[in-house]
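Before we proceed, please read the two lines closing this message. Report back on whether the structure tokens fit the sequence:
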Amino acid sequence: MILDCFQEKYGNVELLFNLEDEVGFFLKNEREDIAQLNNPLDYKETRTMLAERNYVPEEYEVVFLLKKDIKESDITPVRYRFTDDYKNIGFLIPILALESTEHEYAQDRHFLLYSYIATVELLKNFPQYSYVKDIIFNGNKFIISDLVSQDLVIGIFWKKDIESLTISSLSVCLFEEGYVGLSSRLPSELVFSKKNIESLPEEGAIKANKLSLKLLNSDVVDHVLIEKILFLYFPYEKNPPFKFFLLYQIVELLMSYILQNEYDLILSQLQNTQQNNIKSRDILDKIKEFTAEKKRITLLFNNYSSVSTELSDLRKTSIAYIEKMIDADISSEKKCEEYFYLIRNFIVHNMISLNEANNNELEEVNEHLTKVIPSILNTFKKRNIQEQIT
């Protein structure tokens, strides 16, 4: 198997699974020089299984991720809810877990199957960013973490029966768990982090935190833009006002959906009240109301998503920031979205003059916003005429 990803750097590189009497992963360059991937996991049974079931790469989604300070034991099984029940469809595998047998999944048949496929797909699509170190073809063994960051994670998901599964549709769910996309940015520049939280295992099961995969619904159409913000821009940003501004772009995007949806609802209502001038006038008055950003934030937090019970921490930290930076006498009786919108206006109008001395409170706002934004995206749903607020 010729690996196209290495073509520009090394010329033709061939992936071999056997070399003389040895089984493993071998890279051979045009001069017949060899580099062997050091992988201590026992894949004998896995190779037989894959040969019998006719492995089809297109049935799997493989994505390269980063998670700050991840450990080899932070292997995360991934499941997805089908019509009848949840089913296991893959793993999030720290690259360090492929280089060790000291974790509890080392003998797990399901993990070995997915980790083997992940290794093959990694070699077939090896990252070629400038910070990736060179492979030395000298007959010796190498490990992936010698070439790329030890924070590298391979996400591998069986997607045959999930038509809408793409990296963009997964981005919010993965971000929520602390994973971001591998990119040309130096992994050492990654700021965003979230530790794995272990859950209690089922009786007889391996102790691990399972991830229930959630895909962005069809009402959120700009999956790629959201992926860029959450995977490529926000995780590397250090400046709290800029971090707030980046997250607010997602709020802006959703508010544009709300505006369009409310317009569509109003037009539908007008068609139904063509013979009633008074009702038509009342309906048209709503257009001006829904163009106000403050109104649409209220709709977003309370009607277009299901996060009203998750806003207490964001509200509390928003009040603390406002009291310090904007209005020491602000009422504590307002709703969360009112404080949130006040912070938005303050930052937008004072971005250049804001200094780092007062950023601790804003960083706390951002921290809770990173929890609320995924929940908003995961529950966002357009309204119909019956649900429209009068």
Remarks:
- The chain has a mean pLDDT of 89.
- DSSP finds twelve helices and ten strands in the chain.
- Residues 240-272 form the longest helix (33 residues).
- The two ends are 63 Å apart (CA to CA).
